[in-house]
Amino acid sequence: MSVDKPKPWMEGMIPTLNSRGFMSETMDRFSMAFIDYAAICGHEVLDMGCAYGVATREVLERGGSVMACDMEAGHVEILARETPEEFRGRLRTSVGELPAADFPDGSFGAILCSRVIHFLTGDQIRLSLEKMYRWLKPGGRLFLVADTPYTGFWFSTAPEYERRKAAGEEWPGFIDDIAPLLNRAAPPPGMLAFLNPLDPDILRRECERAGFAVEEAAFTGRGGEPDGNQHAGVIAVRR
Ligand SMILES: C[S@@+](CC[C@H](N)C(=O)[O-])C[C@H]1O[C@@H](n2cnc3c(N)ncnc32)[C@H](O)[C@@H]1O
Question: Which domains are assigned to the chain?
Answer without folding.
Answer: 13-237 (3.40.50.150)
